[in-house]
Amino acid sequence: MKLDIFGKDGQKSGKKVDLNDRIFKIVPNDHAIWLDIKAIQAHKRQGTHSTKGRSYVSGGGRKPFRQKGTGRARQGTIRAPHHVGGGRVFGPTPHTYDLKVNKKVKLLARRSALSYKARDKKIVVVENFDFEKPSTKAFQDFLSDLDLNGKKVLFCSAGHAPLLVKSAANLYKVEVRESYSFSTYDVLKADTLVFQEGAVTKINEVLAR
């Protein structure tokens, strides 16, 4: 699959780039995507929720009243779960929500997500460039030239590009990633993928393995 390469000004440069069919033209596997997205979302959960059981609630050290002779049911402590102010039964405890997904499944999920975007013609390739200094306006003008203003954009740079990252930091619908360091979730969340030419080269090398 070949795509036109656009310049920084949003005009076609006359060059084309080849997208590897093993990455951008496979039959998408929805189950692999579901497994990967589920693991990514689960990993975001802190798992720090906690409640106090009867052994952690303060008070209730002595027996509230004698065992026999009162006509009431025997009680060992006023901090038992059925008392007001008592401990909670089977409450949540801190734990991790991490899910294991095999590397090959993750790779298949990313390929599937990219194939969906390629099929829907939601991939734009631009020449390698960088800014002289961080500039939100310059990045916004770049998106305007590509008619992508107001859209959720995943921008993949050719390499380490701190100036591009800082320039897009205040654009809440824009995510900047270094070459192929994006996730399946990043791809599916974006309306359009913008790859620099160098990023496409690395993606073709790494994700085709």
Describe this structure in words.
Strand 4 (153-157), helix 5 (162-167) and strand 5 (174-178) form a beta-alpha-beta unit. The protein has a six-stranded mixed β-sheet with strand order 2-1-3-6-4-5. The protein folds into two domains: 2-46 and 98-206, Ribosomal protein L4/L1 (Ribosomal Protein L4, Chain: A, 3-Layer(aba) Sandwich), CATH 3.40.1370.10; 51-91, no CATH class. The model has no long low-confidence stretch (mean pLDDT 91). The longest helix is centred in the middle third of the chain and has 17 residues, at 103-119. Helix 2 crosses helix 3 (103-119). The protein is elongated and about 100 Å long. Helices cover 32% and strands 15% of the residues. It is built from seven helices and six strands; from the N terminus they run ββαααβαβαβαβα. The protein starts with a strand and ends with a helix. The chain is of the alpha/beta class.
> What gross morphology would you assign?
elongated
The total domain count is: 2
**What is the first-to-last residue Cα distance?**
18 Å
Helix-and-strand structural type:
alpha/beta
CATH superfamily of the largest domain: Ribosomal protein L4/L1
Order of helices and strands: EEHHHEHEHEHEH
Q: Count the helices. How many?
A: 7
